[in-house]
């Protein structure tokens, strides 16, 4: 990062912000937590970031050692970005920041939720029941095409989420990002299906997943004059791309 944009302080917080404090930097990190992505994948997940801004952030994060770039092995020809081992150390910071921000009132512009953000909600807030058997699910967010296909492995200690779906899942949930987010914390599978989602395989595996994703309630100390945000994360809506931010 150019010196004139740095804080020029030895404090660890300032040094950290020198690395990831630029606009879009931490959201790039968020989008790489579940695995590597192509530039076009990152554009889809960050639709209001201009290509130049995204390229700048990737170059800066790569130069700082947070992100690396590699070419996929044959037959793949695409180049992907991924977090370095040091970059992965940002995960608890990113998750803690998101949980802390649940105490702030949401604005009218804050509508869009990326697919990986929705799936990170599962990995972060899944509250397992000790003694329950493991289960595997394939989740297809059909509003996002191939980028919306995930594998979820439920265990007695948590939920593992990846872009690689299991070959023989216990259940397959085909839905939309908005419907998935709305269903967290609920056991109304009939309502989910009535809204257009489909479930094949073991419906109890889907019910177990949705019921166990408990997004923390908002903190009591919301900013003065604002209303408490809803407990659930808001569903995904089409972003307004008329004002791309560079």
From TrEMBL:
Record-annotated HTH hxlR-type domain positions: 11-109
Region (Disordered) residue spans: 218-246
PROSITE patterns cross-referenced by the UniProt entry: HTH_HXLR
Entry keyword Iron: no
Keyword entries, A-Z: DNA-binding, Transcription, Transcription regulation
PANTHER family per the UniProt record, alphabetical: TRANSCRIPTIONAL REGULATOR, MARR FAMILY, TRANSCRIPTIONAL REGULATORY PROTEIN
Protein name: Transcriptional regulator
Organism, as annotated: Paractinoplanes durhamensis
């Amino acid at each position: 990062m150019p010196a004139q944009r740095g804080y020029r302080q030895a404090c660890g917080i300032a040094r950290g912000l020198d690395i990831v404090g630029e606009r879009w930097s931490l959201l790039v990190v968020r989008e790489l937590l579940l695995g590597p992505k192509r530039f076009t994948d990152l554009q889809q997940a960050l639709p209001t970031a201009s290509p130049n801004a995204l390229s700048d952030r990737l170059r800066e994060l790569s130069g700082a050692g947070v992100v690396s770039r590699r070419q996929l092995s044959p037959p793949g020809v695409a180049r992907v970005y991924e977090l370095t081992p040091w970059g992965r150390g940002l995960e608890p910071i990113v998750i803690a920041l998101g949980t802390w921000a649940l105490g702030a009132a949401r604005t009218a512009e804050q509508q869009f939720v990326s697919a990986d953000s929705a799936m990170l909600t599962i990995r972060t807030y899944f509250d397992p029941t000790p003694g329950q058997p493991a289960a595997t699910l394939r989740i297809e967010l059909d509003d996002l095409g191939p980028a919306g296909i995930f594998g979820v492995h439920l265990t007695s200690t948590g939920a593992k989420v990846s872009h690689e779906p299991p070959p023989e899942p216990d259940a397959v949930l085909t839905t939309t990002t908005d419907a998935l987010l709305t269903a967290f914390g609920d056991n109304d599978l009939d309502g989910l299906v009535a809204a257009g989602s489909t479930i094949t395989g073991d419906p109890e595996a889907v019910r177990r997943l949705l019921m166990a994703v408990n997004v923390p309630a908002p903190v009591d100390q919301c900013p003065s004059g604002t209303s408490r945000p809803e407990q659930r994360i808001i569903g995904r809506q089409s972003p307004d791309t008329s004002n791309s931010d560079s």
